[in-house]
Amino acid sequence: LQVGGGPNPLDFWDRERGKKNGTLGAHLGPVNVVAILPNGDLLSGGPEGSLLTWSKGAIADRSASHPAPITALALHPGGDMWFSGGADRVIRHWPPDASRPLTFAKKHTAGITSLAVAAKSELVVSGSTDRSVRVWFTPSGEEIAVLTGHSEGVNAVAMAPDERWIASGSDDGSIRLWPIKAGKPDPDREVIVLEEHKKPVTCLAFSKDGKTLVSGSQDQTVKVWDLAQHKCRRTLTGHKNWISSVTLVDDRTALTTSDDLTVCFWDLESGRELGQIDLGLVGDCPRCLALRGDRVVVGSSSWLIYEFQLLPANKTKSGGGSSK
Question: Which pTM value belongs to this model?
Fold first, then answer.
């Protein structure tokens, strides 16, 4: 399935009042973020600041969420609420009806790059190019912690399943593991710094059992970290350009997107590439992805959203997806 729009949307105007009634078309540039809702609908955000809801390949709702590009989107594991962040430094909390989002205080001093939502507690974490990581209490939007230590901007954040660690990846090439307790820094444990990437760290994902962290970088590698020993267990190589996103299918397998125009499926234990989708066949670049069950959604640089079905590891094949 292929949905999306292009750089030339069609506007509808009230001729007598000179007022725009609506727009037919999608994002006005690359799809920066995507998510899959429990009911099967899709969410996507782009550079024009709109958060779109897609149902059966068509736009069901359009919200002018941010006056600047949407750069981060996090869906609560329960699927009943989500959070958007943008270059405008604003975080918005969308309730189930998505009618009146709560706007968090503008504490970041530069654009927000990433968001992560706690599964058990009422916390959301944000990363920014201002080099900080911030923790928020979701019902009120109150900031409860500021984590600093990176020497360059933060590109990615993730929260461990047990909510005892927050991971952040930065343009400084490092990953920092922040010990937290009830969302605040835990004074009884030290910050752990992982420094094997050679270039900026662009994406992070914890395994469901909390024992593994997977990171992607502009150095074209994916690293698998043993969190008990605080060291890299395996480096996955094969991408020919920087890694833009990573999502874990389960504790053993992961999906990555890269500016080399591919989506890759990896066995984290062996380091073997199990399959590949080559969007170079249609001249497109995958920028972000979302996974729910066997359904994979990929946002691209050419305003399009692709949907694929994830096959079992022993049946995964290379090739592009069908479109309609």
Answer: 0.89
